[in-house]
Amino acid sequence: MDEVLVKEQENSSEEEIIKTKEIIMDLDAYQREQEELEKMNRVSVRKLGYLFVKRVFDIVCGLIGVVVLIPVGIILKIITMATGDFHPIIFTQNRIGKNGKEFKFYKFRSMVPNADEVLFRTLEMDKVAAEEYKKNKKFKNDPRITKVGKVIRKLSIDELPQLINVLKGDMSVIGNRPYLPREKEDMEEYYDDIIKTKPGITGYWQVNGRSRTTFKERLDLERYYSNNYSLILDIKIFFKTFKVVLFGKDAE
Predict the structure, then answer these.
(1) CA torsion angle for 211, 215, 216, 219 (degrees, to 10)?
(2) What is the β-pairing status of strands 172-174 and 102-108?
(3) Rounded to whole angstroms, how far apart are CA atoms 247 and 237?
(4) What are phi and psi of 251, to 5 degrees?
(5) Helix (H/G/I), strand (E/B), else coil: 179
(6) Alpha-carbon distances, residue 81 vs 76, 84, 86, 110, 145 (angstroms)
(7) pLDDT surpassing 50 at residue 6
(8) Which of 12, 15, 75, 210 pairs with 250 at a CA distance of 20 to 30 A?
(9) pLDDT digit string (tens) for 183-233?
(10) CA 213 to CA 85: how far, in whole Å?
(11) What pTM, to 2 d.p., does this model score?
(12) Phi and psi angles of residue 87, each rounded to the nearest 5 degrees, phi first
């Protein structure tokens, strides 16, 4: 009888120990979950703050830019007409935006009006040029660019109408460049990362090589930005952009 009681007490003690361990494990798991939730909340607050500051900055820059855009547009129109080019100076095109949503992209036209026709003809007739375009998605000596276009590209004036896109919320001042829908396939595994953020007028790629990089290197740079964006990084890109614009470095 005594042996039975001893065994029952031992079993009861083991059960209590097991239950205690389970409670401790549950408490540890709960504590880890709470810590993870707190961490996520802190990240969410920082992200919301970052997005708010960025949007305010975009609106201010957009409003100032649109005011500047009017006289620049008038001057540019007069110059292009003087060269015998009477076509519209604003170029529109569909581009890939945040989360893959397409939008109408604005730019001062720096190419001939039938640029796509010239592109496809060049790719068909010139194998060397076709290989260059396949690798870089651009030409070193682009046959589509006009004389006026070379100047406004060098000074990055052609980008000014994108401030309309910034005001509309399609783009941001700082971000990855907006890709063409036909480039989606070439972006391969980079696509999902790059479209996580709004495209921008200037960005990490533009201040880190731009015309000196291959398409693959550009994708690497822009994926880095999408996965590491921050207010500090945006500020660095913004001020580095002035160096690129003022000295014409890589602005082809």
Answers:
(1) 90
(2) unpaired
(3) 15
(4) -90, 70
(5) strand
(6) 9, 5, 5, 13, 16
(7) no
(8) 75
(9) 999 999 999 999 999 999 999 998 987 777 888 999 999 999 999 999 999
(10) 32
(11) 0.75
(12) -80, 160
